[in-house]
Design a protein that fits this description.
Layout (H helix, E strand, L loop, with lengths): L12 H16 L16 E4 L4 E5 L6 E6 L36 H17 L11 E9 L2 E4 L5 E9 L7 E15 L5 E9 L6 E4 L15 E2 L8 E13 L7 E9 L5 E5 L5 E8 L2
Antiparallel strand pairs: 1-2, 2-3, 4-14, 5-13, 6-12, 7-11, 7-13, 7-14, 8-9, 8-10, 8-12
């Protein structure tokens, strides 16, 4: 270990030679020592033996900068070829859209992935959506009421239309209606269903989606019946809900209409009213 002030003092030949040898010892040993050299110069190296580090003086000659670890291969620094990094190495984040040999940081990758996902999800077409996805929703509400004495299904003003984006898609039809029957000689009930079609009252036409359902002695199919009160001239007032997954096989506008009838041979069937809204929802489901 040797350090020197790098100033050769005047003296005898032997003294000058000793001083020169001490300077050379300081040079070849990188000014090694357990403490910093007392005389320093800009970019001077110092082998700090107490910390086991090689240090270099900064350009302003006011601080030491650590270069690496003494007695370690390559001073413990990463090699240019296939470096084995540890800890949390960092690098500058390339600008968005950069396409060269720059290192892609986690910030760069995250921004790229977030943008790609947002673009993909935002630009998915109906055809690219997975099966079972809801592609569109149509809601309608009706606050009035309508009556009939018909024993066959008649159309109500509760209707809505939807245009499927593909003939293979399905339409989930849901309705929630208020029902009342009064003046029946035996029991009071209202049968409700939904038609793929349209028309008010007896002008109703289309396909009864409850076809094949037998819920009452009357053969007209229905999705539900309001609660019946047994006895003469009784009445019932209740909410009915039903749903059906329809396959219209169409890409044209498809209308759906809630229909109803009285469930007995007498009395009046009423749909809606009572200060509540009856509703119908149509959902296009990817097939």
């Amino acid at each position: 270990m040797a350090q020197h002030d790098y100033d050769i003092a005047n003296g005898t030949g032997a003294a000058v030679r000793t001083d020169l040898n001490n300077v050379l010892d300081a040079v070849v040993s990188q000014n090694s020592g357990g403490s910093a050299p007392s005389t320093t110069f800009s970019y001077q190296q110092w082998a700090d033996t107490s910390a086991g580090l090689l240090k270099i003086r900064n350009g302003a000659n006011n601080a030491w900068v650590t270069v690496g670890t003494l007695d370690a291969a390559n001073l413990g620094l990463a090699t240019l070829a296939s470096p084995n990094l540890s800890g949390n190495p960092t690098a500058p984040t390339p600008s968005s859209g950069d396409n060269d040999t720059s290192i892609a940081t986690t910030a760069f990758v995250k921004a790229l992935v977030d943008s790609a996902v947002a673009t993909a999800v935002g630009n998915l077409t109906d055809a690219q959506m997975p099966q079972g996805s809801v592609l569109q929703v149509i809601n309608t509400a009706w606050g009035a009421y309508q009556e009939t004495t018909s024993g066959s299904m008649v159309g109500s003003p509760l209707t809505a239309s939807i245009t499927p984006s593909s003939a293979s898609n399905k339409i989930l039809v849901q309705f929630h209606v208020n029902c009342q029957n009064y003046g029946s000689s035996t029991f009071a009930a209202v049968a409700t269903t939904v038609f793929r079609g349209s028309g008010l009252n007896t002008n109703l036409s289309g396909t009864n989606l409850a076809a094949g359902i037998q819920g009452h002695s009357n053969t007209t199919s229905a999705f539900g019946y309001s609660n019946a009160a047994i006895g003469s001239n009784n009445s019932s007032d209740t909410m009915l809900s039903a749903s059906h997954l329809d396959s219209p096989n169409s890409t044209s506008s498809v209308a759906y209409t809630v229909a109803f009838r009285r469930a007995d041979s007498s009395g009046n069937a009423r749909l809606g009213g009572r200060g509540v809204y009856s509703t119908m929802t149509l959902m296009e489901i990817k097939g």
